[in-house]
Amino acid sequence: MRVESESQLVEAVRGAKAPLRIVGGGTRPLGALAGEPLQVAISGISLYEPGALTLMAGAGTPLSEIEAAVAAEGQRLPFEPARWGAVLGAAGESTIGGVVAANVSGPRRVQAGACRDSLIGVRFVDGTGAAVKNGGRVMKNVTGYDLVKLMAGSWGTLGVLSEVAFKLLPAAPAQATLVMDVPLAEAAAVLAAALGSQFDVSGAGWLPGVGAVVRIEGLEQSVSYRAGRLAEVLAAWAPKVMRDEGAGLWRDLAGAAPLQGLPGDLWRFSVKPSDGPLVAARLGGRAVLDWGGGLVWALVAPDTDARKLAAPYAGHATCLRGGLPAFEPEAAPVAALSRGLRDRFDPKGLFNPGKMG
């Protein structure tokens, strides 16, 4: 089933007799879910005010269309949304609704925050078929919830997004990337030193075959000065300073490009930055680090529970590609809260059942 307007989405949900599998661009196919596919193709930018740095668009709008529109005005989505399709082996075009549903946040998260931090409004259809707008019509059974934050990262289990709104930022006119050829074991020290400096780092990670990478963005003179000073701070690791040619490294980092096409199950860990290299090493070292070490992409042998290999760690893990459930079981108190939310927003259990427990 394909819907191209919010009214069609309302009708589809109200008429549903069985569970629905929510589909956007099909680039993040986590979990083998049952249910009738419901493809959200509500597309188009409904409002863009460059002077106010705000944009609203249908949830099915391709991410590329959003990025092209704001780039033409010298602006950008602050959180640098990543594309996962290639590393997951999934065809399709990433949509802005899918980005929100998965709270997809790229390397700039260390500076600008996550997707949910830039999201300022949502429209969605709940499990009763009611269209809900944050800040508009208030439903009696959701009063008191921050609906914007709640929908980001809910993976379509609480409602089906029809429209999203973002705050934007001016695009940086210049950037510099510092590259240090260091092994995984040294990554934590390098990235901590960079992020702990006063030079406003906008990205910090580690890629196999490349080493540690750190990014500075802003006005040309400021970038030149800060990159030079940061190189002095990191002098022990012999940094090489790259200018615009370093942009490709950040696309590779955001999409875990070094792991594309390789065999094994793909896992994603969110941990303390200081723990990232340790977790990656326990998993065998076939890894990419982002968010200063706080995000670990790793490949392990098929049907291996990477959580057991990585222990002990503080954080959470997701099986992005493999035979195990995508999301780990929630602790009892959290599971109770999750059930309560689903009961309120999706009382008939229509949306992506079993997706998150």
UniProtKB/TrEMBL annotation:
Looking at the keywords, is Cell membrane present? no
Is this entry keyworded Flavoprotein?
Answer: yes
Recorded hits in InterPro entries, A to Z, give: FAD-bd_PCMH, FAD-bd_PCMH-like_sf, FAD-bd_PCMH_sub2, FAD-linked_Oxase-like_C, Oxid_FAD_bind_N
- Entry's PROSITE patterns? FAD_PCMH
Q: Which GO terms describe its molecular function?
A: FAD binding; glycolate dehydrogenase activity
TM segments? none
Q: Which keywords has UniProt assigned to this entry? A: FAD, Flavoprotein, Oxidoreductase
Superkingdom of origin organism: Bacteria
User: Domain named FAD-binding PCMH-type: which ranges?
Assistant: 1-171
Which protein are we looking at? Glycolate dehydrogenase, subunit GlcE
Organism annotation: Rhodobacter capsulatus (strain ATCC BAA-309 / NBRC 16581 / SB1003)
Task: Identify the taxonomic lineage of the organism of origin.
Answer: Bacteria, Pseudomonadati, Pseudomonadota, Alphaproteobacteria, Rhodobacterales
Q: What gene, per UniProt, encodes this protein?
A: glcE
